[in-house]
Amino acid sequence: MSLAHLSKSSLTRPSLPSLISHSMMVRKMASAAAAVAPAPQPHIPTILNASGPPPGHSVTVGNLQTFILPDKVSDTEANRKLGKALVEAWQKDGILQISMTPEQHSLYKSANYASRRFFGKPYAQKAACVDSQTYSGYIASGEELTDGIADYSEIFTLEAIRPGALPSL
């Protein structure tokens, strides 16, 4: 029996036996169809080398300029040259690398942790961290415009901060 042979009355108010036989018939038809043609499998892309370029594309690996930062930045000719070189690398390549000593890496990790802790605070606490004299402090998402378009990142701007200018973070 095919689905075309079901009468309109059997579709509007089927009895329990007809539902059971209809269900069994559908199962048998599905089994027969599966035996003839295997069910289509979902497309799972094959990733041959996820760290490489997409198939059919070539890539030229650039040499990023790598900088070593001093332990302490002060107003010296060497530090001014380093600052200019950092800016030039960024302007030329759009990216640069910083090599860190274990101590510098530890400071970086601490700063990153403090940043996550600060930006995880409620808005009212973050908004209280603004110094109107230096324009330093918290800028909420959407408050700053870049080329007339709202910048949706949260920012904490640092300028020349005087001791005690901002509440303790």
From TrEMBL:
Coiled coil: none annotated. Signal peptide: none annotated. Pfam families: DIOX_N (PF14226). SUPFAM superfamilies: Clavaminate synthase-like. This is Non-haem dioxygenase N-terminal domain-containing protein. Residues 75-160 form the Non-haem dioxygenase N-terminal domain. InterPro entries: DIOX_N (IPR026992), IPNS-like_sf (IPR027443).
